[in-house]
Design goal:
Elements lengths: L9 E6 L2 E5 L5 H16 L2 E3 L3 E3 L4 E4 L8 H16 L6 E4 L8
Parallel strand pairs: 5-6
Antiparallel strand pairs: 1-2, 3-4
Length: 104
Protein backbone atom coordinates (compact mmCIF):
# COMPACT_ATOMS: atom_id res chain seq x y z
CA UNK A 1 0.00 0.00 0.00
CA UNK A 2 2.93 2.35 0.49
CA UNK A 3 3.17 2.91 -3.25
CA UNK A 4 -0.42 4.23 -3.24
CA UNK A 5 0.45 7.18 -0.99
CA UNK A 6 1.46 10.45 -2.62
CA UNK A 7 3.27 13.37 -1.02
CA UNK A 8 0.25 15.66 -1.49
CA UNK A 9 -2.16 13.30 0.29
CA UNK A 10 -3.00 14.07 3.90
CA UNK A 11 -3.73 11.33 6.44
CA UNK A 12 -5.10 12.12 9.90
CA UNK A 13 -6.59 10.26 12.84
CA UNK A 14 -9.83 11.96 13.85
CA UNK A 15 -10.22 9.95 17.03
CA UNK A 16 -10.97 6.44 18.12
CA UNK A 17 -11.06 4.25 15.05
CA UNK A 18 -11.83 7.09 12.61
CA UNK A 19 -9.29 8.32 10.11
CA UNK A 20 -9.46 10.85 7.29
CA UNK A 21 -7.54 10.92 4.04
CA UNK A 22 -7.47 13.98 1.80
CA UNK A 23 -6.60 12.90 -1.74
CA UNK A 24 -5.42 16.09 -3.44
CA UNK A 25 -6.26 16.64 -7.11
CA UNK A 26 -8.10 13.33 -7.38
CA UNK A 27 -11.30 12.83 -9.36
CA UNK A 28 -14.20 10.69 -8.19
CA UNK A 29 -13.18 7.62 -10.19
CA UNK A 30 -9.60 7.67 -8.88
CA UNK A 31 -10.77 8.26 -5.29
CA UNK A 32 -13.22 5.36 -5.57
CA UNK A 33 -10.49 3.11 -7.02
CA UNK A 34 -8.18 4.07 -4.13
CA UNK A 35 -10.91 3.41 -1.54
CA UNK A 36 -11.77 0.07 -3.16
CA UNK A 37 -8.08 -0.90 -3.06
CA UNK A 38 -7.80 0.00 0.64
CA UNK A 39 -11.01 -1.93 1.34
CA UNK A 40 -9.70 -4.97 -0.52
CA UNK A 41 -6.33 -4.95 1.23
CA UNK A 42 -7.96 -4.67 4.66
CA UNK A 43 -10.60 -7.32 3.84
CA UNK A 44 -7.88 -9.76 2.80
CA UNK A 45 -5.70 -9.18 5.87
CA UNK A 46 -5.89 -11.68 8.71
CA UNK A 47 -4.08 -11.67 12.02
CA UNK A 48 -3.50 -14.89 13.89
CA UNK A 49 -2.34 -14.68 17.49
CA UNK A 50 -4.02 -17.95 18.35
CA UNK A 51 -7.40 -16.46 17.49
CA UNK A 52 -7.93 -15.64 13.82
CA UNK A 53 -8.91 -11.98 13.49
CA UNK A 54 -10.27 -10.52 10.29
CA UNK A 55 -10.34 -6.75 9.89
CA UNK A 56 -13.16 -4.77 8.32
CA UNK A 57 -13.28 -1.20 7.10
CA UNK A 58 -16.09 1.17 6.21
CA UNK A 59 -15.08 4.04 3.94
CA UNK A 60 -17.07 7.17 3.13
CA UNK A 61 -15.99 9.30 0.18
CA UNK A 62 -16.86 12.98 -0.15
CA UNK A 63 -16.22 15.07 -3.23
CA UNK A 64 -14.88 18.54 -2.56
CA UNK A 65 -14.48 20.95 -5.44
CA UNK A 66 -12.59 24.22 -5.48
CA UNK A 67 -15.32 26.29 -3.83
CA UNK A 68 -14.45 27.75 -0.46
CA UNK A 69 -15.28 25.15 2.18
CA UNK A 70 -14.60 24.87 5.87
CA UNK A 71 -13.00 21.84 7.51
CA UNK A 72 -16.31 21.31 9.36
CA UNK A 73 -18.39 21.16 6.16
CA UNK A 74 -15.92 18.76 4.53
CA UNK A 75 -15.93 16.54 7.61
CA UNK A 76 -19.74 16.62 7.81
CA UNK A 77 -20.04 15.50 4.16
CA UNK A 78 -17.49 12.70 4.59
CA UNK A 79 -19.14 11.62 7.84
CA UNK A 80 -22.48 11.37 6.03
CA UNK A 81 -20.86 9.07 3.45
CA UNK A 82 -19.26 7.00 6.21
CA UNK A 83 -22.64 6.42 7.86
CA UNK A 84 -24.07 5.50 4.43
CA UNK A 85 -21.36 2.82 4.28
CA UNK A 86 -22.09 1.56 7.80
CA UNK A 87 -25.91 1.62 7.66
CA UNK A 88 -26.46 -1.47 5.44
CA UNK A 89 -24.04 -3.61 7.43
CA UNK A 90 -20.60 -2.00 7.43
CA UNK A 91 -17.43 -3.21 5.71
CA UNK A 92 -18.09 -1.33 2.46
CA UNK A 93 -17.34 1.86 0.52
CA UNK A 94 -19.96 4.60 0.02
CA UNK A 95 -19.67 7.96 -1.72
CA UNK A 96 -21.42 11.29 -1.34
CA UNK A 97 -20.76 13.06 -4.62
CA UNK A 98 -21.48 16.53 -3.36
CA UNK A 99 -19.94 19.00 -1.01
CA UNK A 100 -21.65 21.26 1.50
CA UNK A 101 -20.85 24.87 0.71
CA UNK A 102 -20.53 27.46 3.48
CA UNK A 103 -23.60 29.25 2.12
CA UNK A 104 -25.89 26.21 2.44
Amino acid sequence: MDDQCRGADLFARLGGEEFAVLLADTDNAAARAWADLVHSVVANTWFDDGNALKLMVSIGLAEVDKVQLTPDSITKTADSALYDAKRPGRNRVAAVLRALRDSE
